[in-house]
Write a structure and sequence with these properties.
The chain is α/β, with parallel strands linked by helices. Helices cover 56% and strands 14% of the residues. The protein folds into 3 domains: 4-114, Ribonuclease H-like superfamily/Ribonuclease H (Nucleotidyltransferase, domain 5, 2-Layer Sandwich), CATH 3.30.420.10; 129-196, Methane Monooxygenase Hydroxylase, Chain G, domain 1, CATH 1.20.58; 224-319, no CATH class. It is globular. The termini are far apart.
């Protein structure tokens, strides 16, 4: 089926959009609208009149919450759309000079028309998953603030050896305790949210039993896999997390060690490394593997990376079957 492709550059207040055809990639329409409900609906109607009711495939970059309203309206009107990683569009554009919102919209439209074989229709996550994403983001902010307060509290204790700082130290203690309560309450709300969604609860109850996986790691895996709908292969998810090593060779002169890619989800990789360290301490099978590899001369961080990969394989294995996880090393 022949499509017209609409590239949209999303910003906080406005949307720049361009429409091109698939054959010669000519720009047929270049306009701007507000990033509001009325503005988005007006854009859709204008494009439909321009292409005379033929099929349109919308394409725009992942921009977090700025593009959420656009995706919601397109999905509610059963329009076909794809959210694409910005790095993919940048790398495909070749050598470019200059940048503006209208130019970016044209580049996105041309990208969609050129790489139509790579485009996959996007579907918004469920309301429960989107709410969980917001809660995890808020919790991350609270944890960062609490860490800053704890560091400042330690500095105050050192300073108090020279200057009286009792009042300030007590203030920091109260603030740290306040954020401890906030974080605990938020974690309880995340558990309640998971329990209210049957699909999330079934997956959560399975993967939480894997040694090393805690509440936040389990919730993050459910979020980024969209409850194992976006990823059905542990190898692909390891690649997304930055755990999969890649070869780096060229001819006979360039031969470097295999290493992971810098294109990764850093937060998720950090959580999985924490999970790996926990598994090394509490899972005898993993602990034996870790000790054997380090004695063979493997770098400690490389072995931890391999353990994190093993944990993902276990998570996907238990999520894709009806049987519960069994730790044979116990």
């Amino acid at each position: 089926m022949e499509y017209f492709y609409c590239g949209i550059d999303v910003s906080k207040d406005s949307l720049d959009y361009a429409v091109c055809n698939q054959q010669d990639k000519n720009i047929l329409l270049l306009e701007k609208t507000d990033n509001t409900i009325s503005g988005i609906r007006k854009m859709i109607k204008l494009i439909e009149r321009k292409v005379k009711s033929r099929q349109v495939w919308y394409c725009f970059e992942h921009t977090g919450h700025y593009g959420l309203l656009l995706a919601h309206i397109l999905q509610s009107q059963q329009q076909k759309y794809s959210m694409v990683a910005s790095i993919d569009i940048i790398k495909s554009s070749g050598l470019t000079r200059g940048k503006s919102d209208p130019i970016d919209a044209q580049r996105i439209a041309i990208y969609a028309a050129t790489f139509t074989h790579k485009l996959k229709p996007t579907k918004l996550q469920s309301e429960s998953v989107l709410r969980m994403k917001t809660m995890l983001t808020i919790r991350d902010h609270y944890v960062r603030i609490r860490t800053q307060l704890k560091n400042a509290h330690k500095s105050m204790i050192i300073t108090s050896k020279v200057v009286p700082m009792k009042t300030e130290i007590n203030d920091y203690k109260r603030e740290i305790a306040r954020y401890d309560i906030k974080i605990t309450r938020l974690e309880k709300r995340i558990i309640e949210l998971i329990n209210q969604d049957n699909d999330l609860k079934q997956s959560y109850d399975k993967i939480i039993k894997v040694t090393g996986i805690g509440l936040i790691t389990a919730a993050s895996i459910l979020l980024y896999t969209n409850n194992f709908k976006s990823f059905n292969n542990p190898r692909k998810f390891n690649c997304y997390c930055g755990l999969a090593p890649f070869e780096y060779t060229s001819g006979t002169s360039v031969k470097r060690k295999d290493k992971t890619s810098r294109y990764r989800n850093k937060e998720l990789k950090k959580l999985l490394f924490n999970a790996a360290n926990t598994a090394i301490r509490h899972d005898q099978q993993i602990k034996t593997y870790f000790n054997r590899k380090t004695k063979e001369g493997k770098h400690k961080m490389s072995v931890i990376n391999a353990v994190a990969c093993k944990i993902i394989y276990r998570v996907f294995a238990v999520a894709n079957r009806d049987e519960p996880y069994v730790n044979f090393s116990v």
